[in-house]
Structure formats: structure tokens, C-alpha cells
Amino acid sequence: MIEWKISDGLTDYSDALHFMEDRANAIAAGEAEECIWLLEHPPLYTAGTSAKREDLTDPDRFPVYEARRGGQYTYHGPGQRVVYVMLDVGKRGHDVRRFVAQLEEWVIATLAEFNIQGEIREGRVGVWVTRPEKPANPDGTPREDKVAAIGIRLRKWVSFHGISINVEPDLSHFDGIVPCGITEHGVTSLVDLGLPVVMGDVDIALKSTFEAVFTSSA
């Protein structure tokens, strides 16, 4: 059984970290069910284990947290659906690469519910969309924008942290960092792509696509 937890309003980041760590420990000990937590945070930046200080271009803009997850700097804030996944990767095959690939597949399947073609790129973490309506890159390749970020941590083979999907955040808030260390591409959201969706629509899509991606591996 997996508990789906949805929090209204804005969840303090430190409180979320404490909850995830406690829940991951309890799952590893066999004392709690797996959990997927859907929430929003107030505006903040998080630094993953590969974050470079020079990629924090406006350090005084929002609070900055050491997340201890994989990846570099990312932004969280209102209008972004954060999905924390506390799942037993041990019982799902002890394959971290496959688990991350499943998270990517889950995001892509969720976007497909809105007729958006999400894609992954070698050497670039997260899920991307092609923007043919925007000017091409200097080398002639199509412009691509990031619509979702992925970063996890494992403790005793239980995951925490997870994914974030930009529904309708203030995209200017990403200007204070180099998102995930990538300078040559931008950031977008579902609303920026022209979709009149709200958070509840995304939650329904996340729930409806989860089972096909993950349950068969449990």
C-alpha cells in the first residue's frame, strides 16, 4: 500500500525534510507504508550534492537550503507541484538508475495526459520540451525548455526527495540560479506552454499514470 498525501497551502522546507527523513527510516524498518507527498513550497532555492557556488547568482533573493539530494541548484515555489517519493527501491530491484528512469517515465506519462511531449536528454537531468515557436539556438538546433526537475536521495534503499513539475510558478524566480547547472536552455511551465491547467489537474494525472510505471516493479 502507498499513502498519497496532499498538503494545501505552502509547506515549510525544513518541516518537509524532517518528515521525509522520519518516514524513510520508518519504511526501511517496516513500520510505515510507502508515501507519495504532493505539496508546494514558499519561494526557495535548494542545493544538491553537485551544486556549484557560482551557479547561485542571486544568493540573497530567497532562502537557500542544502538538500543533500542528487543534482545541482533548483528552485521551488508556489505554482510548482513538488512530488516527494518515499518508496522502497530495495524491493523494486535495488536498481537506482532504473528507478530514476521510472521517475522520468512517470513525468513524461503525466505530461502526455495534457498532450505535451516530454523528453529526456543525455547529460541533462529532468524532463524537457521542444519550443519550435521560439528562435533557434545559435547552432540551429531547436530551443528546449525544462518543465520538470528530478533529484533523489536514498537511505537504506528508501528514496526521498523526488520530482517537481512547473504548473504555473513565477518563472522569473529561476533567474537567481543556473537551474541544474545548464545555461544554454530555459525553463517553462504548463501554463507557459498554453495549457489552462490547475494543480488538481496535475494531481489527477500523476495518480492515474503512477501504477503503470511503478506497480509492476514492486
Which class best fits the helix and strand makeup?
Answer: alpha/beta
- Sheet with the most strands? 8 strands, mixed
Task: Outline the low-pLDDT stretches.
Answer: none
Q: Could you state the oligomeric state of the chains shown?
A: single chain
Binned, the helix content reads 10-25%
Number of strands: 11
Specify the overall morphology: globular
Helices and strands, in N-to-C order?
A: EHEEEEEHEEEEEH
The DSSP helix count reads 3
Strand content: 25-35%
How far do the termini sit from each other? 10 Å
How big is the Rg? 17 Å
Q: Taking all residues together, what is the mean pLDDT?
A: 92
Keywords:
218 residues, alpha/beta, 8-stranded mixed β-sheet, 3-stranded mixed β-sheet, 22% helix
